Amino acid sequence: MDFPNDRKYTSSHEWVKAEGDVLVIGITETAQDQLGDLVFVGDVNPGTALSKGDTAGVVESVKAASDIYAPVDGEIVAFNEALNDQPDLINQAAFDTWIFKIKPNNPADADGLLDAAAYEELVNAG
Question: Which residues belong to any copy of the Lipoyl-binding domain (predicted)?
Answer without folding.
Answer: 22-103
